[in-house]
Amino acid sequence: MSAPDIIRDLQLAPHPEGGYYRETYRSAQALTNSAGQPRSVSTAIYYLLENADKSHLHRIKSDELWFFHQGQPLEIIVLRDNQAQRIVLGLDVAAGEVPQAVVPAGAWFGARLRHGAGFALVSCTVAPGFDFADFELAERTALTREFPQLQELIEQFTMA
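Structure tokens predicted for Cupin domain-containing protein (160 residues):
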């Protein structure tokens, strides 16, 4: 299948951070967050990147688990503790790829195809559940002030 076929068949829509997604699960069970607001215990999405698409640097207030399904390896960049961590999501475990990865709550992160061509279909699960109220898209200048040694990487993963 091609990326357009998957986008059509899974009914994916453009995501504000880049790529395509569709929410597939939102727990009916809720909890109360620190602000006293109800929050689903867990949520899940399909997420697809193709060719030069990127998940631009962003952060959320919950842990996010990524699961690889098919396509090309996906490079996830995580900025925290004053450094960048690179995780390659894929199925070639012998080459250092992992089929599942965790991005900790509050970390800045983004993703792109490792080799820049083809597509990757993944799923992401967020716990406590995702809410756009917790979503923060990185602003290049502010993030460069926070991580000056990572300026080149930040420029690659932020919108101009």
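The chain has a mean pLDDT of 95.
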